[in-house]
Design brief:
Blueprint: E1 5-16, E2 19-31, E3 36-40, H1 47-54, E4 62-70, E5 73-74, H2 80-89, E6 91-94, H3 98-101, H4 108-119, H5 124-137, H6 143-148, H7 156-169, E7 174-178, H8 186-203, E8 206-211, H9 214-220, E9 223-228, E10 231-236, H10 238-243, H11 248-275
Parallel strand pairs: 3-8, 3-9, 6-7, 7-8
Antiparallel strand pairs: 1-2, 1-4, 4-5, 9-10
The chain binds adenosine-5'-triphosphate (ATP).
Membrane topology: Peripheral membrane protein
Organism: Enterocloster alcoholdehydrogenati
Main location: membrane
Length: about 280
C-alpha cells in the first residue's frame, strides 16, 4: 500500500551565529492509509520538529533537508501558500494547547466559520449547519450557545474537542495530533483519546499521534516509532515496544511506564484498605 505520508532521512538544524545545532538527524517513517502511527519520545526528542519541518511550520532560521512526502508528492521546497492550503484541508493538525489555537477576542462560532470558509465554498447557512453538527458530534452540550461563547468561557477539554471537530470536518487524508492530551486533566484525556478512536474507526483516516506518554499512545496507535535525540530509536507495535524493544532508551520509557502503573496500583490498594 502507498503511504499517505512519509519522511526519508529528514534532517533539521538551526544555525545561530557560527554554531549549527542538529535537532532532527535523519528520521524516516511512513503512515499507511487508515493507520494510526504513534510518535513516542521525551520532551526535546524531535517529535514536533519533524512534523513542523515537513508541514512548513518552522521559521526561516531552520535548515531542513531530506524528504517529506504527502501522497507521494515532495513537500520540502513548496511555497508557504501551497503548504498553508494543504494544512487544514488535506492535513488536519491538532496541537497541544487548544487555548493558543483560538483567538481570545473572537467568539468560537466566528472562528469555526472562518476556518470552514477558508477551505470550502460553503455559504453562511451551510457553515452554521455544519458547525452545529460538528459540535453535536463532538458531544458538546448546547451547541447553539457554544457558538456564541468566547474561548475563555469554555474548558480546555471542550476547546480541544472543538479543535478535533474542526480538523475532522475537513475530512483530511491525514490527521496529525501533537500532544493533544498533555494540557488537560486525566478524565478529559480519557475522553479525548476515545474521540480519536471514534474518528479513526468512523473515517478510516491516516493519523499521526505524537506523545511522550506510552499509555496514551498505546490506546490509539497501531504502530509506534520511538524518537531519541532526533533519531529513530525503535519501532513496532505496542507489544513489540513493551516486550521486545532492545534499544536502551525505549526500555527506559517502558520501565518508567511500569513504575507509574505500579505506583498507581499501590495507591488504589491503600485506598481500598482504608475504606475496608
Ligand atoms: N524554536 C526553537 N528554537 C530553537 N530550538 C528549538 C526550537 N523548538 C525546539 N527546539 C529544540 O529542538 C529539539 C527538538 O524539539 P521538539 O519540539 O521537536 O521536541 P519534542 O520531542 O516535540 O518535545 P516537546 O513535546 O517538549 O516539544 C529540542 O532540543 C528543542 O530544544
Amino acid at each position: 500500500m502507498k503511504p499517505v505520508f512519509e519522511l526519508e532521512g529528514l534532517r533539521v538544524s538551526l544555525r545561530q551565529r557560527h554554531k549549527k545545532t542538529e535537532l532532527v538527524r535523519g528520521v524516516s517513517l511512513a503512515v499507511e492509509p487508515g493507520e494510526c502511527l504513534g510518535i513516542l519520545g521525551e520532551s526535546g526528542s524531535g517529535k514536533s520538529m519533524s512534523i513542523k519541518a515537513s508541514m512548513g511550520l518552522l521559521d526561516k532560521g531552520f535548515c531542513v533537508s531530506g524528504s517529506a512526502r504527502f501522497e507521494g508528492q515532495e513537500l520540502l521546497g513548496r511555497s508557504p501558500e501551497e503548504l498553508r492550503r494543504l494544512r487544514g484541508k488535506k492535513v488536519g493538525i491538532v496541537l497541544q494547547n487548544p487555548m493558543t489555537c483560538f483567538d481570545p477576542l473572537y467568539r468560537v462560532g466566528y472562528q469555526i466559520a472562518e476556518t470552514f470558509a477558508a477551505h470550502n465554498d460553503w455559504n453562511a447557512g451551510e457553515i452554521r449547519r455544519r458547525s452545529l453538527k460538528m459540535l453535536e458530534k463532538m458531544c458538546i452540550r448546547s451547541p447553539e450557545e457554544t457558538l456564541e461563547k468566547y474561548p475563555h468561557q469554555l474548558s480546555g477539554g471542550m476547546l480541544q474537542r472543538i479543535m478535533i471537530g474542526i480538523a475532522v470536518s475537513m475530512t483530511p487524508k491525514l490527521l496529525i495530533a501533537d500532544e493533544p492530551t498533555t494540557a488537560i486533566d486525566a478524565i478529559t484525556q480519557f475522553e479525548i483519546l476515545n474521540e480519536f478512536l471514534r474518528v479513526k474507526k468512523e473515517h478510516q483516516m491516516a493519523m499521526i499521534f505524537i506523545s511522550h506518554d506510552l499509555n496514551a499512545i498505546s490506546r490509539v496507535a497501531d504502530r509506534i516509532v520511538v524518537l531519541n535525540q532526533g533519531q529513530v530509536a525503535d519501532q513496532g507495535d505496542f507489544y513489540h515496544i513493551l516486550h521486545h524493544a532492545s534499544d536502551p532508551y525505549t526500555r527506559l520509557l517502558v520501565e518508567k511506564r511500569a513504575a507509574v502503573m505500579e505506583r498507581y496500583q499501590g495507591i488504589l490498594e491503600e485506598k481500598e484498605a482504608s475504606y475496608a
